[in-house]
Amino acid sequence: MGLLKIDKASLYDVPVKTTPENVKEANEGLFHSTMNLPAAAKHCGMTHKEMKMTFLEYLKYNKPDYEVS
Predict the structure, then answer these.
(1) Residue 59 near residue 52 (C-beta atoms within 8 A)
(2) How far, in whole angstroms, is CA 62 from its chain's centroid?
(3) pTM reported for the whole predicted model
(4) Domains of the chain: which residue ranges?
């Protein structure tokens, strides 16, 4: 039996650069429930706590796009 070689690069996530476009996509994904918090945070290269704070700011300054009956 031979030794298995493990590619170390495949064990780690590549860091994502946080851009306004990524943050906007993540916030909209959270608002429309197409992303969960860990996926949104990973999408824009933030921690969970940073994503939570950013999303709360998003909610403050963006009107809801639905009507409550």
Answers:
(1) no
(2) 18
(3) 0.77
(4) 16-61
